[in-house]
Protein: Tetratricopeptide repeat protein
Amino acid sequence: MYGKAFAPEYQGKLRDMSVNAALGDVLAAALERESQAAEEGVGLALAQARLAVAEAYRRLGRLDEADAAWRASYRTARSAGERGAMAWALWSGGTLARQRGQMAAAVRWLSYARDLAKQSGELIAYGYSVAGIAETLRIRGDYEEARELHVQLLAEARKRGECRHTVWALEGLAQLDRNAGDLDSAWERFAEAAEIAEEGGDERGLAWALRGMADVMSLRGEHDEALQLLSRAEKICRRMDLASALAYNRKMRGNVLFRACWYGEAARTYRDAKQMFQSINEPRGAALAELGLLKSLDKLGRPRPATEHDLCALRDRLDSRELRHTRRMVEEAISEMAEIAA
Structure:
């Protein structure tokens, strides 16, 4: 029903590179191709190589270098009059902005990418851009609009039998279901995403699906089983050099440990996750890890006033327009502590 997963962001002479290739290998090949394309003087080939460079840097957590690379790809594509390549570069830039917690910029770049992709007939870039917008809206807390886009994307992906798009859409809808408290639906969607990803050879999508399944299992009280799924996903992340996915996996491990009331280990795990997020300049993940750390320390007997002070400081650092959902989670933790104190 679904085809094998492939990586359309690897283009030109990089087209045959596996979607599951280790990112260090992708970066080396992309930099070599960039050098060759520059010597050849072919604008489209150079833009394509720089796109692969940008995506490798982004997924490795080297965000400043990723920023320079996607912008270089866009400028090269624009000079060559290649609208499709311009769309891909903007997609990369929008995805990077979301990773950095810059949600307004992410929606803006991804919307430009969507429009250029539509104008140029780049259907895959169009789908990737719309998927990026949906994910950004979901993370920002705009759930209704995000759900509409994810439902649309899922229908289109199923019709075309696209493995990665189907997995992304299912995972997005599963996360929305989980946030709404519908654990049964969330489990079904995450489990289907994992099955399709595994059958299609999409290990990156599989790692994210396993993380989602572990979240639902731990919410049901199946903590040991959840940790086993996270360990399996972690192996994938480490093999592929997925810095951001690995950090989120680590943060979820902290969540599972916290729910199991293993607060000391949870605190150590959240601290590790926070450092991982800070090393790749990912503010949303760092904030979520810090929130988990503070809640764990509170359970371990840290003086409540100190924890409340740090939670308020964390809340105030979060832009309510950019990271609305994350800020709301911190505010809920503050309210819960105030109620307990009362």
Residues 23-40 form the longest helix (18 residues). The chain has a mean pLDDT of 93.
